[in-house]
Design brief:
heterodimer, A: about 525 residues, alpha/beta, TIM Barrel, 2 domains, 9-stranded parallel sheet, 9 strands, B: about 140 residues, Rossmann fold, about 20% strand, globular
Amino acid sequence: MSDLNSSHSGLPLSPFYSAEGDDQNAPGVYPYTRGKRLPRPGQSWILRELSGEGTAARSNQQFKSLMAKGQQGLDIIGDTPTMHMLDPDHPHAVHAVGTQGVSLCCRADFEELYRDLPLDELSFSQSLPSVPGIAGLYLVAKERGVPSEILRGSAIQLALYEDDCSYSRHLPLKLRMRMATDSVEFAAKKMPKFHALLEDTYFFSETGLNSVEEMALGFVELRYYIRELLKRGVDIDAFAPRIGILLTCRMDLFEEIAKIRATRRIYARMMKEEFGAKDPRSMALTVTAHTSGLTMTAQQPVNNVARGGMQAVALAMAGVQAMEISTFDEAYRTPSEEAHMVGLRTQQIVQLETNVTKVSDPLGGSWYVEDLTDKMEQSIVAQLEEIEALGDIGELTEQGYFRQIFNNAMERLSRDLSDGTVQRVGVNSHQIPNAEDHMLKEASERKTQPFRDQIAHIKAFKQNRDFEKSKQALGALYDVVRDKNTNMMESYVAALAADATIGETAGVLRQAYGQKYDPLGNLPSPLDI
Amino acid sequence: MQKSSAPIKVLVTILGLDQHEVGAMAIAATLRDAGMEVVYGGRFNLPPAVVNSALQEDVDVIGISAHSWEYLHFLDEIIDGLKAAGMNVPVIIGGSVVTDTDKADILSKGVSAAFGPTDTPAEIVAEIQRVARDSRT
């Protein structure tokens, strides 16, 4: 293999290229179009794959096995009940425990999840409800004597669109916003290296949004959070250095690259000129990516490996801080062990064999890519301004304005696939009969059975805990949440520490905002209110 | 109006904690475009609620949209519930997670039709029309 600064044939390479004498148009220089920073020689993005399955203990084993294969950070996704903030013993959860992510319900689960993992070394990205996710990591670090100041990772914040896009928790918007901003404010103080404000444009783009809509809506949400935090008197430079965007990557590779470049530029200008950030780190956006599940097909699943490979190259050229690759089984399930291996190896091949990591922003200066970047920037900003001109963003959400955008996108994609406007190999071109479509089919279709033992386990846990202590902590949480001026996070951590469950805390939060404890049934509240 | 000439009435519903509503809304729109009447049950339904809606709304077909594996486990309870209520309403299942192997399994359990990600809207409409027609005669 060639050394760090040359091509395979030994031709010398610069860390980046620009017009002669133009030092300003470089990665790591405002407005950061060309990258957050110039990587150190040999440095690349964080390799990771979305993981978490079954119990916390089983997921912990899964993490260790991924790390043994070269994964450098974790992205932990909760199972459906966890995402919903319901306990495994809720009647609706019975067939969903642990099948599409890890089941997390209480302090002991978080302890198991992070057991033996180096909290001071690894980066823990959480595709979890942010309040319990951040509280759980913070609590385990505290128990293990690890200073929270050195914890790294991220938490997705989904407050604005979650009800419209399949992450419904039955929490009123005002409460969801409070949870987002409380957790960001808490992390800015206690976990300053942790990206607690990760704007997740991936999940809502899976409705079928195009790249312009994805980023326009992403900026709408991100700006909504930022304004809320500023209204509280939090200094912009106290939390902005740890803002990130987790975006998707579709198959129009140049458009996706232009999107990422334009996003960094829009963000930098917005933070400096509009929100008055002074710290350069507040202007240099962290971008992480998960390749689009929507571009992956159930037909001929092996073809998805090729798609993931191309998307990984595009993301590497765009310059991202971390990536996850959807692979062959994406149309059917959260990644299997085999799919994890393929995703990780895809990233490693791009990283170690293709030389794309040698030169930052290799497409910078291309007439095509620069023009597309400018046009993406203009289109994203135009749509963002158009939406914000309509009025209060919270009201728009509650009126279903965004839901309509997502629904329209879904219908548009379905129509485009039917009439062939969007070409998809194996779906509307180059199809093969089902009977002949067996490569990787069996592995893609394999199912994870519900971990129903966990239901009994949690029931026993609830029986055996010091319930008075849990109840007291839940009561204190209720009081703090009712008082709209106090950050709930310390009380939330205390409730988890006192063995209250995520489902109970969510129910009490709902009650504090005048809602029913159990949104889907009739479970009684542990509090006499 | 005679039931045999009335539009086909379909309950479109999602079970358990299956969060994904996109497919259900898409199929509801497709069925409406094909002239059917859709009772949209939305998300977060357990089997007793599904049986009850089917009974109250007097639907011709119960359509379950599935984007998680939960439906495989709820299915027996729905079919038993319909029997216990003395109802002879056909159940069909469609969704991104329904594989060919699943189709064979659930058809043997008494489901009238099953659709996976490779089936087209036109095929789904035609099959629902057939199932409803058979059920009415």
